[in-house]
Amino acid sequence: MPLVDDLEVWGEDARAALPPGEALLALASVGVAYGARGGAEPDFWTTPVGRATDRLARAVPTEGWVGKAVSGIGGVAFAAPSLDLPADFPERWIGGRTCFGPAGSLARQVEAAATGHSFLAVTARRVVVLVKDDERLREVWSAPRGDVVAAERRPRLLARGRFGLVFRDGSWLVLGTFGAHVGSAHARRVVAALGGAT
Q: Which helix (H) or strand (E) holds 120?
């Protein structure tokens, strides 16, 4: 039994945010699980900051006396040995990869929607992301249940309330329930509502 039963506490608010008559099967306070996010392409380089960083890197000369001076300064400043670990090493090591799919994929849409105080609701017809906004819940994303082709628990040693969703477009996402380190009841409820193995 979870410390806080989201379905009991937030169920009426969630039903009010859904169309009349839509049966609410499961509800969990969620966020994207801790881990290495990433998609089919390097997201950072597609952002304005990433493009500016790339242009700056290409603008610094690597040839001639200026290039030698810049690389010489870099060589002296960074003379310590390097393990050459990937940038997302701590996240990947602790939480694994938690999102995969190109921009615009269903997993990326859920990743963008599940920010702040978010809930994942499973109804008889849809999977819905709700966000708490001014003391009430509002729908920010939804898809037919058929768009989720698989659901399974993805627990880690200290994060038992993690679960993964695989979408029809091949993208996938790992979500963690609020208080995931305490228990797995909410994750089990969502996975069971989607027909996955608990």
A: strand 118-123
